[in-house]
Amino acid sequence: MRIHRFYIETPVSGDTFDIADRDLVHQWRNVFRYNVGSQVIVFDGGGTDYLCMISSLRSLGATLSVIRQTPTEKQKKNIYLCMALVKKDNFELIAQKATELGVSHIVPILCEHSEKRKVNMERLKKIVIEASEQSGRGDIPVVEAQMSIDEVFQKGILPQEKMVLHLEGDTFQKYMSGLNNVYSFAVFVGPEGGFSPKEIAVFKSNNMPVISLGSQVLRAETAAIAISSLLLL
Fold it and tell me: For 209, which DSSP code?
């Protein structure tokens, strides 16, 4: 029988610990029909999976006993996916697949050509948690607050190595040829219709290389998944 995996925000401490997340406890009791003696895998984002037995299950909480600890594989690269806002379902797909691949940060970017103007942060964080649970990932990607291109540069949260995807750019292979020992990258992916001339000017003023994935025009979600895969896998 498959043992399901769940993320908990409170760090695991000791061989026995309590769960106070009412939504999670409700899911265990009413969706999975767990009882005392049922086994679950929990992780707190610290790089370890904990196989646990439910020793107490109450309406407002639960108590777990740790059976076994297993370290999860750590991602060697830190990838900041600076993703232009696109249609709701497409953006959620991007967040899900980027999480499964191992992207460390997802930065929603409001662009001039963005069809959607605002992202539901609460739902987005729920999606990346579920994707981490299902993929076996040991941590949860950081979902930054929505911001403009100017704001993301002003905040100074990005690593030194940055790139922007555009049809008229150097090939990915040429760009990566001298970066074998670099492990942190930021990549900007535009909306349907691409970045505006003003936005391209901002990238150029920050001395960012323009990278192309080929001559074919890719949908925004395809480009985001493709560049994440190339950088991580």
Answer: P
Euclidean distance between CA atoms 119 and 126, whole angstroms: 13
pLDDT tens digits for range 135-156: 999 999 999 999 999 999 999 9
* pLDDT at residue 64, rounded to an integer: 97
Angstrom distance (rounded) from CA 51 to CA 47: 13
Angstrom distance (rounded) from CA 61 to CA 18? 7
pLDDT at 140: 96
| pTM for the full predicted model | 0.91
Token pair of 9, please?
Answer: 């925000």
CB 100 within 8 A of CB 135: yes
The answer to whether the CB of 223 falls within 8 A of the CB of 212 is: no
- The pLDDT of residue 151 is 94
> Per DSSP, what are the bridge partners of residue 61?
none
The pair of structure tokens assigned to 165 is 């995807």
Query: Please, what's the b/e burial string for 56-94 (b: 16 or more CB within 10 A of its CB; e: otherwise)?
Result: ebeeeebbbeeeeeeeeeebeebbbbbbbbbeeebbbbb
Pairing of strands 62-71, 142-143: unpaired
Under 8 Å between Cβ of 182 and 77: no
Cα–Cα distance measured from residue 231 to residue 95, given in angstroms and rounded to the nearest whole number: 16
Q: What are phi and psi of 112, to 5 degrees?
A: -65, -35
Cβ-proximal residues to 163 (8 Å cutoff; 6+ apart), any chain = 175, 185, 186, 187, 188, 208, 209, 210, 211
Segments of the chain with pLDDT less than 50: none
